[in-house]
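Structural prep section.
Before we set up the soaks we want a predicted structure of the protein with 1,3-dihydroxyacetonephosphate in place, mainly to decide which crystallisation condition to try first. Input record follows.
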Amino acid sequence: MRKKIVAGNWKMNMTPSQAVELCETLKPLVAGSEADVVFCVPAIDIVPVVEAVKGTNIEVGGENLYFEDKGAYTGEISADMLLDAGCKYVIIGHSERRDYFKETDAIVNKKVKKAIEKGLTPIMCCGESLEQREQGITLDWIRMQIKIGLQGVDAADVAKMVIAYEPIWAIGTGVTATTEQAQEVCGAIRECIAEIYCRETADAVRIQYGGSVNAGNAAELFSQPDIDGGLVGGASLKADFGVIANA
Ligand code: 13P
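Run finished without errors. Recording the tokens verbatim:
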């Protein structure tokens, strides 16, 4: 039985002091959740957020990392830095990073491997554009992202990681994928993992849906057989996240 996982992706929102305030608001609202609850926050917010959620059921994650251990990579953040600051998770390959910062599947693969090597749980994102969906190539595209993203990753490590399916056309648009659409792709991702690895690995990996998840649609989405929770953007910055974490 897979434990659900509900993660907030704060993106480039919340100054350190605002972040602490938001934690104080959300702590009691997510305290009763039966899911794993994760706040993925901007790098500068990690230390104050880890401090603010100490002793609660909330884990903290980064929104990105660099695949080198250390050195002359101005502006980047390493897996060791995230770990030492108290992170357990890290989002890798979000569509915004793929789009604005030109991250390829090959880069995503290097980052996933570095996260695993260091002991962080990657939340590896995938998702198609509206154009790709209309062309009918959604499942081909997603399968390619999964296959390249996981190249050289052991089955035992895949079993412990998280994959987030986020259709790009549903992110920040208020247009949520239908429950059927979300389940279809999450199910296809699980089948893809079964093909590359085995049934046991596919049954263990947790697959989230992301894209305009809100307090009204979370329960139905999360009740689907292959949807093990959500990766939540806008609604993770307000009290609605408490409803979603309990959905
Ligand atoms: P929204 O929930 O704001 O659509 O964002 C989804 C997302 O990108 C989470 O990573």
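Observations: The longest helix spans residues 179-196.
Flagged for discussion at group meeting.
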